[in-house]
Design brief:
This protein is an alpha+beta fold and about 400 residues long. It folds into three domains: about 110 residues, Acyl-CoA dehydrogenase/oxidase, N-terminal domain (Butyryl-Coa Dehydrogenase, subunit A, domain 1, Orthogonal Bundle), CATH 1.10.540; about 100 residues, Butyryl-CoA Dehydrogenase, subunit A, domain 2 (Beta Barrel); about 150 residues, Butyryl-CoA Dehydrogenase, subunit A, domain 3 (Up-down Bundle). Helix content is about 55%, strand content about 15%. Strands 1, 2, 3, 4, 5, 6, 7 and 8 form an eight-stranded mixed β-sheet that branches. Helix 1 runs parallel beside helix 4, helix 8 packs antiparallel against helix 10 and helix 11 packs antiparallel against helix 12. The longest helix has 26 residues. About 0% of the residues have low confidence. It binds flavin-adenine dinucleotide (FAD). Flavin-adenine dinucleotide binds next to strand 1 and strand 3.
Length: about 400
């Protein structure tokens, strides 16, 4: 199966918007923490968040493979903004797959078109379900909805006029996933300590004090949650590969540029442009195949986790090599090589972080071995979503 065709008028319009609206502000996004809100709204109007959504959902009816290609194009210019594209398109993906009509009707089209910007505060829940940490948000059932308390340390693409999509454990058992508008009573945002990169992502601390979540804003109730997370997880993890691919492509451009003047000495470096480009092409092909399977709802999670880990590893390798190719020039604050290094580290620490991926892969393979040793058939292998309960 081929990768997304980036030569169509749809992709050309996006490339032009990146060249004219994003490239001039990349430096300010990285060093002044400028949040590219206008770029995000305009990208949404071009269909930049809705490739995996149908026309009736506000999308362009392509697939997750094309959504990954859009995120890649943005990441080739700016890794931080590529993360925002992932946040926004993932919220569209979550809403698309919600079994509950009211929440889809309230938010899906506006999110798909970039009219309503949205953040995904799912790191804590995803880490909790993988047995890494305790869940931070707690919900209690009440008439017509739930009341939620707790806080999430870092959620990007949120703030005034935005939506956040998060998950909480429920007092009577199970979990819910829900949308929360910034105007909800009892929801507070606080600034985070300064980051070394990604400062332009409007990443805030979200605090919930008795926030009422109406049933109309619930994406999954406790009885729907396990099947729902199983449906959305391959897609949102695959979506992040676009950030890594874009950053690697940016790094390859730096290497080519540096080789024009210092290629005679750069050839002694470990990771050469041609090798990294070949590794990138292989991972992009895998991503396109898995993304089309995820769109249809038939991807097993293990190859997705392995691909996502491989993308983190390649991104780190490419960014290291790019700065070594560029030399002292690449160490200047004005040079993209040092920015790429900080962006690449983010790909490997944002949930699912490289260490988290390796743990989940280990747990799944371990469970499969144990079942094999117990003489159970391979197809009965199951991995608990609720490893931390
Ligand atoms: C720039 C940036 C943007 C992010 N955007 C999002 C987002 O949009 N959505 C989202 O859900 N997550 C977001 N995160 C969180 C991210 O996905 C990871 O969950 C987070 O980096 C912790 O992962 P870890 O592997 O370091 O955690 P671990 O090393 O496994 O554990 C760290 C533990 O310490 C706690 N902790 C550490 N420092 C603090 C602190 N200052 N305040 C409170 N708790 C702390 C964490 O909650 C966690 O339990 C963002 C992080 C960064 C740096």
């Amino acid at each position: 199966m081929s990768q997304a065709d980036s030569a169509t008028p749809f992709f050309q319009a996006i490339a032009e918007q990146i060249r004219t609206e994003l490239a001039p502000i990349t430096q300010a996004i990285d060093q002044k923490g400028l949040y590219p809100g206008d770029f995000m709204h305009h990208l949404g109007a071009l269909g930049g968040f809705g490739a995996a959504l149908s026309a009736s959902e506000g999308g362009s009816g392509l697939s997750l493979a094309e959504q990954i290609e859009i995120t890649t194009q943005v990441g080739r210019e700016c890794g931080s903004t590529a993360f925002l594209v992932w946040c926004q398109s993932s919220c569209g993906w979550y809403l698309k797959h919600s079994p509950n009509t009211p929440v889809r009707e309230r938010y899906l089209e506006q999110v798909a078109r970039g009219e309503l910007l949205a953040g995904t505060g799912m790191s804590n829940a995803v880490k909790h379900l993988a047995g890494i940490e305790k869940i931070h948000l707690r919900a209690q059932r009440e008439d017509g909805g739930y009341v939620v308390n707790g806080s999430l340390p870092w959620v990007s693409n949120v703030g005034d006029g935005h939506l956040a999509i998060v998950a909480a454990s429920v007092e009577d058992g199970g979990y819910i996933m829900f949308a929360v508008p910034s105007t909800s009573e009892g929801l507070e945002t606080r600034a985070c300590l300064e980051f070394s990169g990604l400062e332009g992502t409007q990443t805030l601390n979200l605090r919930f004090r008795n926030v009422h979540v109406p049933d109309e804003d619930v994406l999954a109730h406790p009885e729907q949650f396990a099947a729902y997370v199983k449906r959305i997880k391959p897609g949102f993890v695959l979506g992040q590969t676009g950030m890594g691919f874009g950053i690697v492509e940016g790094c390859l451009a730096i290497m080519r540029e540096s080789n024009a003047s210092t290629g005679h000495v750069n050839i002694f470096l470990d990771d050469q442009e041609a090798d990294l480009a070949a590794q990138l092409a292989a991972l992009k092909t895998q991503a396109a195949v898995l993304a089309r399977q995820a769109q249809a709802g038939g991807t097993p999670i293990l190859p997705v986790l392995k691909l996502r880990a491989a993308v983190s590893e390649l991104t780190l390798k490419a960014a290291n090599s790019a700065v070594l190719h560029a030399g002292a020039k690449g160490y200047l604050m004005l040079h993209p090589a040092q920015r790429r290094l900080r962006e690449a580290v983010f790909v490997a620490i944002v949930t699912p972080a490289l260490k988290h991926l390796r743990k989940e892969i280990h747990d799944i393979e371990q469970a499969a071995h144990e079942q094999h040793d117990a003489g159970l058939p391979a197809q009965s292998t199951r991995y608990s979503l609720f490893a931390n309960q």
